[in-house]
Write a structure and sequence with these properties.
Helices cover 15% and strands 29% of the residues. It has helices at 28-34, 50-54, 301-314, 333-338, 394-398, 454-461, 465-468, 471-479, 523-531, 552-565, 574-577, and strands spanning 118-125, 140-149, 153-156, 164-170, 177-179, 181-186, 191-195, 219-224, 233-247, 252-259, 271-274, 279-286, 296-300, 325-328, 348-353, 368-372, 375-376, 382-386, 389-392, 405-412, 415-422, 441-444, 447-451, 490-495, 510-515, 518-519, 537-542, 547-551. It has a seven-stranded antiparallel β-sheet, with helices on one face. Strands 22, 23, 24, 25, 26, 27 and 28 form a seven-stranded antiparallel β-sheet that branches. The protein has a six-stranded antiparallel beta barrel with strand order 8-9-10-13-12-11. Residues 1-11 have a biased composition (Basic residues). InterPro entries: DEGP_PDZ (IPR041517), DEGP_PDZ_sf (IPR046449), PDZ_sf (IPR036034), Peptidase_S1_PA (IPR009003), Peptidase_S1_PA_chymotrypsin (IPR043504), Peptidase_S1C (IPR001940).
Length: 578
């Protein structure tokens, strides 16, 4: 056919807009990428009969053609009783027809995920203001994903409802948002549990069923409400790695799955289904780097089940216990010989022990941990996991619950000792989270005293706080251990300028070691010592050998004027008044 020439000044009149890609209407190419050939078997397009292919139009009455009768389409089933054909002729949900190039052959059944159990989570957050701890930041909204489980409960990510003020849920295909109640937030495992009081929300919703831990190359389907649209989204991939992962939100290390399915903003809290239709994890984070593509992470079912059973057992989330020791690999043969290990013995050496942990009363530095609960530990700190797989022995510890007992075999002075000890959660000198509580503060003479936490450092020094934080604070963050359960790192966060504190204005984020010669254990002890001080002077010993000296009566009188000037309701936070 000859090329059709267009007239100047006029747009071509085209009725077919299938090849146009706009922001308002997604193209078919995007759907083909999500439901790729690797994940869905599509029905091959049947070629037309030869008579039709060779037929050419004649003048006059057309000749009747003999056509072949097409077989009826295969049944299509989905969780809602209906299915939607894909744009390539296959079926996205339900039974996927298959066969040879002629269309013959048995149909391949595929279990459909419980799509109607996936909900959209709307949350209004009000974060604390660490620079001005007596007030909060401006509220903001976010949306994420979640899914319904048994017992009229909904699971989502902990970071999806962090510092929540209001949480609402919307079901698939519904225009109603239901108010939700937060039952528990697991900071370490990044899981939160919600519920809805309105009975209408639970009508027609079937909870998802949990499946077993998948193996490598198992197909997974991530369902949620990511950025880029308002309706439900599905991405597919395979399990590419199973190991102990770093949970960014919880600053912990737990078992995790790495998948190659796309996990974008808004996917957080959405379920990951297996090809059997069972939930095998919760999407929660992804790796963003210029050198990587499609690396997403999923919280596996052992961690999810641990969170649920912990809540059901204790009525609240108590956390994942850890072994309060730091250990060293024993891969060097000379090191093993020096520590008195035999050729058939393997294990790891204890470097130091957390003084606040139960293990501090039993174990000693340079002990060799040979086994945990009867499972032998290798020289690199791993234990057998599944066929062809090994896992860090911290996985065994994370399977326990707070307060559970564990049997530990150690080698000390060439003698094998067996201990049975209770496990507890780990407490850091600089905590990773405030667990929803507002920051503590105390003000005297314009000096704002506060406690250091990871959110505090992130607020002061930004996302790159690990590089921008002063060396003294950074060293305590990475290496220091608390000497008592209630120990805190107290700093002067800032100085509210007034006549009484002239010359001290440049003191910022400096640790307080002592007050009037007495060590500062935590912020409450400092506030009590200052409030009950009858000495003439208030003397604070700070980091870098600095001191701050104020007259006692003048400082307490000036505090009231400073509070009024800056519209601060109280000189101390509510938790210090108790």
């Amino acid at each position: 056919m000859s090329e059709i020439k267009r007239k100047r000044g006029r747009k071509p009149n085209s009725n077919n807009r299938a090849n146009e890609e706009t922001l308002d209407s997604p193209s078919t190419t995007a759907m083909d990428d999500v439901f790729s050939v690797a994940n869905v078997e599509l029905v091959p397009n049947q070629s037309p009969p030869a008579a039709v292919a060779e037929h050419r139009p004649r003048r006059g009455r057309p000749k009747k053609l003999k056509t072949e009768e097409k077989p009826p389409p295969p049944p299509r089933v989905s969780s809602a009783g209906l299915s939607r054909p894909s744009e390539n002729g296959g079926d996205i949900n339900g039974v996927i027809p298959g066969g040879d190039s002629n269309g013959a052959g048995p149909a391949v059944a595929r279990v459909v995920p419980a799509m109607d159990a996936v909900v959209k989570v709307f949350c209004v957050h009000t974060e604390p203001n660490f620079s001005l701890p007596w007030q909060r930041k401006r509220q903001y909204s976010s949306s994420s994903s979640g899914f319904v489980i048994g017992g009229r409960r909904v699971l989502t990510n902990a970071h999806s409802v962090e510092h929540y003020t209001q949480v609402k849920l919307k079901k698939r295909g519904s225009d109603t948002k239901y108010l939700a109640t937060v039952l528990a937030i697991g900071t370490e495992c990044d899981i939160a549990m919600l519920t809805v009081d309105d009975d209408e929300f639970w009508e027609g919703v079937s909870p998802v069923e949990f499946g077993e831990l998948p193996t490598l190359q198992d197909a997974v389907t991530v369902v949620g409400y990511p950025i880029g649209g308002d309706t439900i989204s599905v991405t597919s991939g395979v399990v590419s790695r199973i190991e102990i992962l770093s949970y960014v939100h919880g600053s912990t290390e737990l078992l995790g799955l790495q998948i190659d399915a796309a996990i974008n903003s808004g996917n957080s809290g959405g379920p990951a289904f297996s090809d059997k239709g069972n939930c095998v994890g919760i999407a929660f984070q992804s790796l963003k780097h210029e050198d990587v593509e499609n690396i997403g992470y999923v919280i596996p079912t052992p961690v999810i089940v641990h969170f649920i059973k912990d809540y059901e057992k204790n009525g609240a989330y108590t956390g994942f216990p850890i072994l309060g020791v730091e250990w060293q690999k024993m891969e060097n043969p000379d090191l093993r010989m020096a520590m008195g290990m035999k050729s058939d013995q393997k294990g790891v050496r204890i470097r130091r022990i957390d003084p606040t942990a139960p293990e501090y009363k039993v174990l000693k530095p340079s002990d060799i941990i040979l086994s945990f609960d009867g499972v032998d530990i290798a020289n690199d700190g791993t234990v057998p996991f599944r066929h062809g797989e090994r896992m860090g022995f911290s996985y065994l510890v994370s399977q326990k619950y707070t307060g559970d007992s564990a049997a530990i075999k150690v080698l000390r002075d060439s003698k094998i000792l067996n201990f049975k000890m209770d496990l507890a959660t780990h407490r850091r000198l600089i905590p990773s989270h405030n667990k929803g509580r507002p920051p503590s503060f105390y003000i005297i003479a314009g000096f704002v005293f506060s406690t250091v936490s990871v959110p505090y450092l992130r607020s002061e020094y930004g996302k790159e706080y690990e590089f921008e934080t002063p060396v003294k604070l950074l060293e305590k963050l990475l290496y220091s251990l608390p000497q008592s359960p209630d120990e805190q790192l107290v700093v002067i966060s800032q100085v509210l300028v007034a006549d009484i504190n002239i010359g001290y204005e440049e003191i910022v984020n400096t640790q307080v070691h002592a007050f009037n010669g007495k060590p500062v254990k935590n912020l409450k002890s400092l506030a009590d010592m200052v409030e009950n001080c009858d000495d003439e002077f208030l003397k604070f010993d700070l980091e870098y050998d600095q001191i701050v000296v104020l007259r006692s009566k003048t400082a307490k009188a000036a505090t009231l004027d400073i509070l009024a000037t800056h519209c601060i309701p109280s000189a101390m936070s509510d938790d210090l008044k108790k």
